[in-house]
Specification:
single chain, mainly alpha, about 180 residues, flat
């Protein structure tokens, strides 16, 4: 049901490709200017990884780059659903995980953000990956590379949306109390 709702909304929103839609036109213009001027750095007004993604799709296909940017958001939006379920199951148990998954899967804002090329869907996906690995490291006795994977994923989330930088402090506090 969650996949059907997102794909249907993606298809209906994909027919609205004019500049009056919900696309981040300022970021799209920054990406196009950045590529056309061959600058060495991305403007820091936005998360640089999202600008790189849009620029990559623009280099591949200048006519359909918005479609591919939206598709990228849709795929990561869909991949965030099982991650959310795993996190809920790991923390609260199976019954709460199913209920939380159902609410999250039908959350209108999450559905909408997965159909446009905004940075929220990829950032949320990478944050959930980071949280998954962090909780594995936090609760398991045998630690291998979970904290490293968590840090890489959190770095990706922060490069999409700068607000995730705050999580680094929370992780540090939790690790301090774990090893105290």
């Amino acid at each position: 049901l969650a996949i059907f709702v997102r794909v249907d909304y993606f298809n209906s929103n994909n027919n609205n490709m004019d500049r009056g839609g919900d696309e981040p036109w300022s970021k799209i213009n920054v990406a196009q200017r950045w590529i056309s001027q061959s600058n060495s750095g991305v403007p820091l007004a936005f998360g640089p990884l999202h600008t790189y993604v849009i620029s990559f799709f623009w280099l591949i296909d200048k006519e359909n780059f918005i479609f591919f940017s939206r598709l990228f958001s849709l795929i990561l939006n869909l991949l965030s659903l099982p991650l959310f379920f795993l996190l809920m199951w790991q923390i609260f148990g199976l019954k709460v995980a199913f209920f939380g998954f159902f609410l999250f899967a039908l959350l209108p804002l999450h559905i909408h953000l997965g159909s446009v090329s905004l940075a929220e869907a990829p950032a949320l996906f990478f944050f959930l990956v980071s949280l998954y690995f962090f909780l594995k490291e936090f609760f398991e006795k045998e630690v291998k590379y979970n904290l490293l994977f968590s840090a890489v994923a959190l770095n990706c989330a922060t490069m999409f949306r700068f607000e995730y930088f705050i999580i680094i402090g929370l992780y540090a506090i939790l690790l301090f109390y774990k090893h105290k």
